[in-house]
Amino acid sequence: MKQQKILIVEDEGHIAEVLIAYCKNNGYLVEHFNSGKGVIDYINDNTIDLMLLDLMLPDTDGLEICKQVRAFSSLPIIMLTAKTEEIDKLLGLEFGADDYICKPFSPREVIARIKAVLRRTMEAHENDHSQSIKQAEFEMKVAEHEVTFKGKFLDLTPREFLILQLFLEHNGRVFSRNEILMHAYQDTLDISDRNIDTHIKNIRKKINEVDAKADLIHSVYGVGYKFSKQA
User: Fold this and answer.
1) What is the pLDDT of residue 143?
2) Torsion region of 61: left, alpha or beta (phi above 0 gives left; psi -120 to 50 gives alpha)
3) DSSP conformation letters of 166-186
4) What is the CB neighbour count within 10 angstroms for residue 83?
5) Which of 51, 58, 107, 113 has the fewest CB atoms within 10 Å, counting from its CB?
6) Is 68 left (phi over 0), alpha (psi -120 to 50) or beta?
7) In 3D, which of 106, 78, 101 has the Cα closest to residue 7?
8) Tell me, what's the pLDDT at 141?
9) Residues 9 and 101 reside in one and the same domain
10) How high is the mean pLDDT in each 10-residue block of the chain (231 residues)?
11) 110 and 151 share a domain?
């Protein structure tokens, strides 16, 4: 089982240090942001299992980040805040938070909450008869956001996963760069379609790390790309 990764968005240095230490001591990988800047892009481009999100950040509202994430991801979110009013708790949960912890808190309580939310998420996935795609020695579990090729796990970013999903669901169909962009960047259009070339290059590289001879994603001159065993 791959090591789970926690994203901590917390501007108070001493709190962040304690959370990072406790998460690492409990076997989690950790990434930390001390403001909201760059958080959405990071989530889009990396595989995260859970986010600890402070409500009051110096440059943005944690609720707004939560709302933006929920527009494209079911990433589990635990909100951290010094506000204890019931209205704030309800508002946080309405914006899509999975749990809510008020400061001051025990780091052990935070770890217990992380484990509980991750366990609930895993159980929901196991109980959900989610879509499984099998194509050309790939097996993709959509809800679990996992894909294997010839039995080997492919560590794809969220964008790469969406692009490969599109190809696996439509074997042999040619997609323009713009069509792929619209599928992979549903939350924003301020992206060059040349970004797709970079994503395709990275997906091919990860596939070739499993099988150097695999040639499955083909360029179609003047059009875009297609997935097929045949060029």
Assistant:
1) 76
2) beta
3) HHHHTTT-EEEHHHHHHHH-T
4) 15
5) 58
6) alpha
7) 78
8) 87
9) yes
10) 88 95 96 94 89 91 87 86 62 72 88 90 60 86 87 90 90 86 66 79 95 92 83 46
11) no
Q: Which residues pair with 102 in a beta bridge?
A: 81
Place of tokens 């481009």: 45
pLDDT in tens, 120-153: 877 666 555 456 888 889 999 887 788 999 999 9
Q: Which of 78, 108, 127 is the last residue of a domain?
A: 127
β-bridge mates for residue 135, sequence order: 138
Q: Which pLDDT value is given to residue 222?
A: 84
Same domain, 156 and 66: no
The verdict on 10 and 103 lying in the same domain is: yes
How far CA 136 is from CA of 36, 105, 215, 227, in Å, comes to 40, 49, 11, 10
pLDDT of residue 69: 87
Backbone φ and ψ of 38, nearest 5°: 85, -5
Domain of 98, CATH number, reads 3.40.50.2300
Helices 86-94 and 62-70: angle between axes, nearest 10 degrees = 30
Q: Which of 107, 3, 97, 112 is nearest to 51 (CA)?
A: 97
| Model pLDDT, residue 149 | 95
Amino acid at 158: P
Q: Contact 219/231 with Cβ under 8 angstroms?
A: no
Q: How far does the chain reach from its first CA to its final CA, in angstroms?
A: 35
Identify whether residues 112 and 17 lie together within a single domain. yes
Number of domains in the chain: 2
